[in-house]
Amino acid sequence: MKIKNIIIGSFLLLSVSACEEDMNYNEFVSYNQEQVFSSFDRTKNFVTNIYSYLDHDFGYYSGAMLASATDEADYVWSWSSIHDFYNGAWSASNPKAGMWSNMYAGIRAANLFLDASQGQTYTDFKYNKDYNEQMERFNRYQYEVRFLRAYFYFNLVRQYGDVPFTTDVLTEEEANTISRTPASQVFGFIVSECDDIVNNLPSSYSNLAYTETGRINRAAVLALKARTSLYRASALFNSGEDKKLWKEAALANKAVLDSCAEYGITLGAYTDLWGTENYKASEVILSRRLGDLNSLEALNYPVGVEGGNSGNCPTQTLVDAYEMKATGLLWNEAGSGYDPANPYEGRDPRFEMTIVKNGDLGWPGYNSKEIQTFVGGFNGAPLSGATQTGYYLKKYLDPSVDLRPNSSNEKRHSWVTYRLGEFYLNYAEAVFNYLGSADAKSADFPMSATEAVNVIRQRSGVDMPALPAGLSSADFSDKYENERMVELAFEGHRFWDVRRWKEGEKFSSVTGMKIEKTGDDSFSYTRVEIPRSWSDKMYFFPIPDSEIRKNPNLTQNTGW
Fold first, then answer.
1. CA 34, CA 116: separation in Å to the nearest integer?
2. Which of 8, 121, 359, 440 could crosslink 435 through cysteines, CB 3.0-4.6 Å?
């Protein structure tokens, strides 16, 4: 298995681009243990390389985001491997194992560093004028690396359930004998690690003698614990419906909210969450900065726009989740105010911020034509690569990125790993499931689930009507899940949320919109169902068949 070859000796550092003021990922070199600890810069670069395994979803599956394996989006190009998730091609021999490989590579590097650094002190380095600063950073690295290892294990358990687990440096032979550790135990390890390291990391790096961005801070540790606790309490991992787990999840997520208030992490404008400076957004807890690029835009700007190739196209299913702003009701709820002849008028403002629709102007910034997704339009069928859903993606794209040959540019992109908005929603879900109703409060939980959701709905620039008090449990659950789909769209949550809720049948089909022009300024709108396949075995990924063949103690997930 891929936890192999964790042997003190020579090892590789991967090359990842970064900006000068960011953490600089070292060029592709090979160091042995003595070399790694021979200078502060080499130690720093090795730790920074472990950061390079932090996950992101700017098109991991041949240009497709994981959103296109959910009801959020449909990927227009048939050659992408994203379609394997629902077309029958997904199997143990086609396991979608990138996460398995990457996370175990990160764990391998973390275990190596933590083992090799035992007994190392900063006095082993040559003295220089930055000694005090560098000693502080060196002493902190072990806690950063322990966080990263715990984060990698969270991603693995979320995807596979029980997983091979080790904190030791192993030979290949030893690694290929490890059996799977129960998910509950790995979750317990993650929570314990977070508790152990949280007070050994700064709340912010901006008030230190040196400036670094993108490193693990105290709030990020609390965020990992909170997200882990939410998953551990959810149906996929909590078959016994243990209320204690929901209480622990509520407490962990409340700790994030309380700490963010203390550290000055606050909700800001929704659109601050993407663009060149999004890593500076007031609610961002941790982001993975990827450097300057334009591939995300090239893979998602509409076909028909110069340089655009289309890609992850939002579904009508997602569009339907955006309520009417005046009433706070869904399009198909009585009294919502929805006008079928003008289906996009008066929607939740996050709709316009997330989705490119027929008739939009100025998208992207250099495009002087209106967006036409209707049949026969500039950006619609029958153009090759035109959206099959009626929409194109806006969220996370930078409209200042220019793809025209004579004026092309690249802009910095950062993937938001944790942000404050998620934890209001996490808290709402956990406290609702623990206390048993949407309006319930207690001494431990003075904010109700409804109130927590309303913080998100009424954030600046969104200002949606508050959810009313007195909702039934079923109605609140529906409203909550809808709010989570809208607020966190294209942020990598939906694929996992629906699985942990054990509601996978929602992925058995998606809805698109066929738009046809019927006059100068009039259109017809016809819903189109796009079938997909779902099986309950898909709640977890298959263990790669290649790994099972190497390790006789490694068992396969049910159904694969």
1. 9
2. 440
- Give the pLDDT confidence of 389-402 residue by residue, as tens digits: 999 999 999 999 99
What percent of the chain is modeled with pLDDT above 70? Answer: 91
Structure tokens at 342: 């003008």
The two tokens of residue 168 are: 């030791």
Tell me which residue of 142, 124, 266 sits closest to 200, measured CA to CA: 142
70-85 confidence digits (pLDDT tens): 999 999 999 999 999 9
29 - beta bridge partners?
13
Single-letter amino acid code for the residue at 175? A
What 3-state class would DSSP assign to 495? helix
Q: Would you list the DSSP string of 504-537?
A: GGGGSEEEEEEEEE-SSS-EEEEEEEEE----GG
Q: Does the N-terminal peptide bond of residue 382 adopt cis geometry, omega within 30 degrees of 0?
A: yes
What DSSP assignment string belongs to 219-269? HHHHHHHHHHHHHHHSTTT-TT--HHHHHHHHHHHHHHHHHHHHHT-----
Say how many CA atoms lie within 13 Å of 268 toward its Cβ. Answer: 17
Please count the other Cβ atoms lying within 10 Å of the Cβ belonging to residue 547: 21
Q: Which 3 state secondary structure label does DSSP give 419?
A: strand
Give the CA-trace dihedral at 388, 362, 417, 17, to 10 degrees: 100
In degrees, rounded to 5, the angle at the alpha carbon of residue 272 between the alpha carbons of residues 270 and 273 is 80
**Which pairs count as long-range contacts for 6-15, CB under 8 Å and 24+ apart, including other chains?**
6/108, 6/111, 6/112, 6/168, 6/169, 6/170, 6/171, 6/175, 7/169, 7/171, 8/33, 8/112, 8/115, 8/116, 8/169, 9/33, 11/109, 11/112, 13/45, 13/46, 13/49, 14/49, 14/52
**Mean pLDDT, contiguous 10-residue spans, the chain (560 residues):** 37 31 37 72 91 93 96 97 96 94 95 86 60 83 97 98 96 94 98 98 79 87 99 98 98 98 97 96 95 96 98 98 98 97 98 98 98 98 98 98 97 97 99 98 98 97 97 98 98 98 98 96 96 98 96 97
Secondary structure (3-state) at 356: strand
